[in-house]
Amino acid sequence: MKEIDLNFAVSRVGECRITSPISGVRFVKDEEHVLYHSDIETIKSYLETGREPPYLEKAGPREKIYFDPVNLRCGIITCGGLCPGLNDVIRAIVLTLFQQYGVKQVLGFRYGYEGLSSKYSHEPLELTPESVGSINEMGGTILGSSRGNQDIGDMVDTLNRLHIGILFAIGGDGTLQGAQAIASEATRRGLKISVIGIPKTIDNDISFIQQSFGFDTAGSEARRAIYAAYSEARGARNGIGLVKLMGRDSGFIAVYAALANSQVNFCLVPEVPFKLEGLLKALEKRLARQGYAVIVAAEGAGQDLLAATAERDASGNIRYGDIGIFLRGRIKEHFSQIGRQVEMKYIDPSYIIRSLPANARDSAFCLLLGQNAVHAGLAGKTDMVVGNWNHQGTHVPISMAVSQRKKLDPEGWLWNSVLAITGQPRNLF
Amino acid sequence: MKEIDLNFAVSRVGECRITSPISGVRFVKDEEHVLYHSDIETIKSYLETGREPPYLEKAGPREKIYFDPVNLRCGIITCGGLCPGLNDVIRAIVLTLFQQYGVKQVLGFRYGYEGLSSKYSHEPLELTPESVGSINEMGGTILGSSRGNQDIGDMVDTLNRLHIGILFAIGGDGTLQGAQAIASEATRRGLKISVIGIPKTIDNDISFIQQSFGFDTAGSEARRAIYAAYSEARGARNGIGLVKLMGRDSGFIAVYAALANSQVNFCLVPEVPFKLEGLLKALEKRLARQGYAVIVAAEGAGQDLLAATAERDASGNIRYGDIGIFLRGRIKEHFSQIGRQVEMKYIDPSYIIRSLPANARDSAFCLLLGQNAVHAGLAGKTDMVVGNWNHQGTHVPISMAVSQRKKLDPEGWLWNSVLAITGQPRNLF
Amino acid sequence: MKEIDLNFAVSRVGECRITSPISGVRFVKDEEHVLYHSDIETIKSYLETGREPPYLEKAGPREKIYFDPVNLRCGIITCGGLCPGLNDVIRAIVLTLFQQYGVKQVLGFRYGYEGLSSKYSHEPLELTPESVGSINEMGGTILGSSRGNQDIGDMVDTLNRLHIGILFAIGGDGTLQGAQAIASEATRRGLKISVIGIPKTIDNDISFIQQSFGFDTAGSEARRAIYAAYSEARGARNGIGLVKLMGRDSGFIAVYAALANSQVNFCLVPEVPFKLEGLLKALEKRLARQGYAVIVAAEGAGQDLLAATAERDASGNIRYGDIGIFLRGRIKEHFSQIGRQVEMKYIDPSYIIRSLPANARDSAFCLLLGQNAVHAGLAGKTDMVVGNWNHQGTHVPISMAVSQRKKLDPEGWLWNSVLAITGQPRNLF
Amino acid sequence: MKEIDLNFAVSRVGECRITSPISGVRFVKDEEHVLYHSDIETIKSYLETGREPPYLEKAGPREKIYFDPVNLRCGIITCGGLCPGLNDVIRAIVLTLFQQYGVKQVLGFRYGYEGLSSKYSHEPLELTPESVGSINEMGGTILGSSRGNQDIGDMVDTLNRLHIGILFAIGGDGTLQGAQAIASEATRRGLKISVIGIPKTIDNDISFIQQSFGFDTAGSEARRAIYAAYSEARGARNGIGLVKLMGRDSGFIAVYAALANSQVNFCLVPEVPFKLEGLLKALEKRLARQGYAVIVAAEGAGQDLLAATAERDASGNIRYGDIGIFLRGRIKEHFSQIGRQVEMKYIDPSYIIRSLPANARDSAFCLLLGQNAVHAGLAGKTDMVVGNWNHQGTHVPISMAVSQRKKLDPEGWLWNSVLAITGQPRNLF
Question: Do C115 and C252 have their domain in common?
């Protein structure tokens, strides 16, 4: 691991002067940290040059808190595309606010940032332990969602008008940048509004966070789709099963699914470039040897091969060319040209995956995230997200979380394992 | 039920002179039948005019059989698209041949009718109870499949050369017509080859057969896809979830899935025509009232609305225009024109459904079909399929089975139940 | 099929004078029937002796109804043990009452018949389309349940005091007998209260009803338990996997699960007696040949082998001796005596099965039952249950439904299929 | 974290002089390590006192290996109770040996250590990529298993006679101690036999290993069982759902399942003692407030409350008294004594859980473990297990792995989260 200069200091809206109503737990101190690196050489090199090795603040209940639960009103929003576990996080936040802190008022804003905008007249939902009791059994989000940001000043006006003390924002990069802007504007106006993000990315590509919620459920369901492609491919002479999976910038879902369903012969990810000719040649060989082949492509793979469309969606993300449709066409074309008949089956399970309820692991994980988000909010932390690192809950400043995408290391053990099990050549050129 | 003139007489390759090796079972006689009609008025009207009411021959083990199991060699082929349960049927046939009759040689021909053609050199698989022992846990077909027929004379040559006594053909309409042609040609040549079809149609549209294998599994998985569409739709402002399901000529899967997942607001099937304007108007109302809507369309629905493409696939089926893509486009266009922003999510779960392993019901059903196919084959029946009617296994001549598609009755209780639960208008004009 | 003298006439509380608010459907007439028998010989023999062959009244919407929906108040109760689909039936009744007939008041009585008794002060729930909208995704019953009947007069007092027009009672034999008593007492008092039963028996043992709701889900989950037993058995030297399944008087679940998971070697059901010695001898042989064995026992199997306990549960059912525990003990004992070490794994999945949400088939079926129950109730039918026969919804008088248990025919095709696939001897003596 | 004196040095059978046949991967060096601690204070205190902080050797492919793959013969055994993922590990080892290293001979010994004993005449299976290709879809172990050790000298004789270079032993504590003894005896005799353990404990209680395979699948399925208990409890007046889960010494499964299914009201684990009176009192309160209650008990919880039976099973583990049966009896008794009627439903899903196929996460994890086990074995490592620590594959000497059970920290964040979501009192006294 290389040394990097990182600043993991977390902001807060004010001093913690109130005694937590929670009793009987081991409180976590702001001075407790989790080391970012886990190899002794790197750590020694920091220490020998008189620098502190980077570490992340530990999440958990604080003995002194900032907000008085009795008068506190909180808000929750969910933004962007669906992701398994959204309802679990909402539920965990509401239950923890009510049952551990005695908070009595929680508003669920509708349809993402639209719910904070005066342009729309979405009435917020009153959330209670009863109303959220079994929402975790349903996919989607009971609050609704939308893409894109709204006017920051307008949203802060709404928060102020409704006396919101803590805003919990569940969403991806764009959402977190919005949350950061809201936190800044609130600070600028001298408002004591804490903004806590719960990072949502089914692609698992948020930096400084080991795993994001929904990722495990996505990988499990992706395995089902791959199994379908494999069955179709194996059932036909020269059958080719092609599955497009989520993963705009990072191939973690494709990799996870390939490891979990070891019938995959080619795994294409954004981090590892390939040439069409290389893929086609290797595919020919595989078909000749095995009679069928299974290909998994992350949506961001091979983007250089497509004429990049300059479009952006409502959240400002570049709309990617569709690698699945592209490969389907080119592969069929190629084999038709060389006079070999293939049977191509193409599967794009994206929406089915996104709208699933969370599996057991993600459910448990969402609960921990929601609990930690509440502890952080009550302690007056702001402009941060809750995360996890080396099996510890952590606090990460939004600026760090959105600073770069987490990516697969093409030299690392994970990608090596994929190459080993798929048997695909390291270089598809 | 209306009176119809039906001829359910089943052919056989010769006299049954051999005593069945099975003991201790109640044998079924050729004279046992299942009534086709189940209302007394129709039956009386047949009897009063001196005609026999139509009935189907009952399936089951016969006391006297035609083929001597000791010297019998059988073949199995699977044709056309994947369908849950193919491996279950193969397994049931092999186990029943070996364990109940003591047959010792079963060949699994590869890739559908290609496996019987001399043009391809696909080596058949030797099938044994050990080799098929747990294939039912896997989706697809271990034999592979292909679409389309091969030269009939060539295929009969192969069967003759390999001394096949009974050919079990698992497939849809095209396959069964091929099976019929093989049976005729064999008869013409004086060959004692029994051809038994096991009708495969995930759409459940084979006549005189109450339910076809794989249909139940398909409906169950379709429910998952609809649930995804529903979650997506509900999670967005003016969200529209659109699911395309199998069903070229008959809407049974769409109907079953709509009844099983009662979040569907519009169910579109081939049997019930609609106009685009009618659908759009009703959809507007539904969005206004409910905030989101879920649409399920069988692939054969609204084909008159599309410019029919004259293409046919390798099996000779007309390639349908894609109603899902069509509706997705037109609905978006319409709401864009009237200035209302909608969020459209389109799901086409077809391949995932087709490649699933059979669920419990289909597994049990495939076992019964396979057992009955073997009993029929050993008894020298030919040119027929095994089916089921009013909870009895039956024999149906191929000519009857392929005479017409089974279709949903737009006046019947089933469609009424769909209208009641979806709340969609009876006429979308 | 043998001739039987059956009286399927359904009672009603009064004349139907009100025009149904439903439009655009094909109404069903009281004169429409489904034949009970489906073989021509039996039907002819009835006709030749001048008798009508027995038939069941068809279910469905009537053109004229008895109750005025505007003023109608309905009640629902769920009684006895859990069964997959209870919430689906509740939901279907509520949605159909509100959406098809415009009924506005539906009470959900709590904890079975306790909810109608003045001894308990259970407040009924107000049920609306909103409150039942997604209860079908949860197992159990939102109303709660209890076993046993309460004082009939007291319960009729409650119904009268609350102005209940139709009582929908979902439950088994005991519940239906209670429903019958309530209907009689109401008639005696001249009260116009319709009592409609929806028969609940996970064992599928109600007469004149082809399949009961929850049975399919139960069979599917039972397959999982058997698979576990099979894995355990196969994984050990002389491994024996023993699964006890539901089925007090009828072995349908055990049979269904054995057909769906064809790894079962012995299937023991109440309808087919066996001796312990016979089973042990056959088991020895099986172990010697196969190295492991899987046994499935319905809870009512081999009851003569146990010292019958005379206990009865709160519903008045005889408490059966536990065949699973009995067999586990005796088998271990036996092999220990003959000096052969076996590994016995015993699985009793009962509660997990009973509390599942309904699978797709059961969900769709519960919807149809609920719709038909409402149509029957509105038409003033009473003292009856909704059922199904030869793919048609039917009305069956409670007296017929509870007259005897439906049982497996040890000579029939279903049991033959089980013997064929398990390979167990026909006689275990 | 407290300082501990740990010795993580891994043994090897000899010098690595052969160049690995693998190319194009980043090889791992023996000098690469993962820090055991992750807080800076502990690490500094080690460094300041001149000691190295403890770390674990990193797993992965080595550039130089010890065994020549061409002549290498390997063996695999699976021991002890079933655990999801056994077949995945077998498959991963076989595929990696053949496909990455070109090893050609792999024997699968039958029924655990029995397969190495001359007392039994179990013929080993020849394992090939074809024969293990889809075994991961099945639960259990294709090799069979048994409990307990066999004579060490005898087993080493067998390994020697069959020219086994690497023995892969998949099993729990007892198995690993056996593996250690085999390794020692081989060393004593100067035999170059590498023994690599893959630690199997569904309880996740092996030290220095963050998670063991099968644990995730177990937690997921346990959630289903708890859901059943919850449905039963909620469906009855004063319903109590009691679920016994695996966890002899450590409550990780119970904790995981409680977090994943947040309907649990009491979670009882071995690490946190309780008194029966405390539990009963809290249960009374919960029933009064909520009307029902759900209790989850790890099998090792409250063992002090039971009269400890001194029995040991064949593996030498103490047979625990059954806390589930005990609690069921005492709770019923108590409420009967205080005259309150409760409905108790008791679920013990153990065997169903143990025999499941691995879920996606466990499948992927088993693949990584199997790959790392092969890399370690080829490099001549011995007397060690493969593990994982802070998202890195690791090598752990068997002596460390079996030195103590990993246990839940009653003061840690995990148990705090459980207390928060269940709402159970910290002290049940």
Answer: no
